[in-house]
Each structure stands twice: as C-alpha cells, then as structure tokens.
Amino acid sequence: MYSVLFFLIGTFGYIFSILKKHSDTLYFKKIFTLIGLPALFFIGWFACESRGERADVFFREDLKRIGVSIAQTLDPDDIESLSFTGADYGDPSYERISKLLRAYKKLHPKIAGIYTIMCRRSTLVFGPESYLPTSPMASLPGTTYEKPDTDIWKVIDDGKPIVKLIKDEYG
Question: What's the pTM value of the predicted model, to 2 decimals?
Fold first, then answer.
C-alpha cells in the first residue's frame, strides 16, 4: 500500500518538475490546479482511509484478545458454583468474579463494561459484571437479557469470540 502511495507521489513530483519548466506561463498553474490538487486530495483520502481500516482491525483484534484473556482468567469452579440468579448476589464466587472484571475494566478504560451471561432454559441471564451495584448500567444476577443480538447466540453455540457493535435494549 505504501509503495502505491510513494509511486503516486513520485509520479506527481516528476510531472511537477517537468511542468515547472513552463512556469513562466499560465499553463503550469492551470495544469497544477486541474491535476495536482485533485490528485493530492485523493492520495490523502486513500492514505487516511487505509489507516482507519488498519486501526479498526487492530482495535477489534485487541478487544478479542482482551475478551479471551478475561475468559481464561476466570476460575471454572467459581463459575460452576453460581446459579446466575438473584441468590448469587453476595456469594464469594460472585464477588471474586465481579472484582476481577472491575480490575480488567480499570486496565482497559476504552471498554465501557464487562458482563457475563449464561444460557438457562433457552434464555440468557446476567451474572457477575464490572459495573458497581450503584451504576445505572448494572443488572442484578439472574436478570433476563431480553433482546440479545443474534451473534451472541452464535458465540454461545460455537464458543468463538466475535467483536462487533450491537444494538440491544441497553444501548
């Protein structure tokens, strides 16, 4: 990609040097205005667009890596001891997982929140999360996830992480 960009800049520079010989005429200014400025605009646009796409891919891969590392950090015994109901609130395993999720949230401030869900009788319910109980975003354990995105079900079925923006009842 950079080779294309350098080629275009080099070609533009070469044409510019040839046309500069005719700078005593108005011809040079017209050619530069008609060809040079639009070319410069499109080169800049192309560079910004490709940089934005690379930044997006890097951001998504970083979020996926963070999500997988959080899942690997959780103790399976703690998770299995939870019922994902209101009875979990105050349970030592629930508190341990919530504290761990809050610590990850502090390490990664670009993440709005981290929550856990479980499929119980074809319904998704919330468990421990990084939100403090006083937060308006907090859900009590066992709260039903009313309108989950279809990709959340895909993650539950095949266990492969997905990073994408979703729209649900929480925003």
Answer: 0.69
Q: What is the pLDDT along the chain (171 residues), one digit of tens a residue?
A: 555 556 666 666 666 666 666 655 666 667 667 777 777 788 888 888 988 899 999 988 998 998 889 989 999 999 899 999 989 988 999 999 999 999 999 998 888 889 999 988 889 999 999 999 898 888 889 999 988 888 888 988 888 888 887 777 777
| Cα-based angle 146, 167, 100 (whole degrees, multiple of 5) | 75
Under 8 Å between Cβ of 4 and 39:
no
Number of C-beta neighbours around residue 29 at 10 A: 13
Give per-residue burial for 77-113: e unless 16+ CB within 10 Å, then b: ebbeebbbeeebeebebbeebbebbbebbeeeeeeee
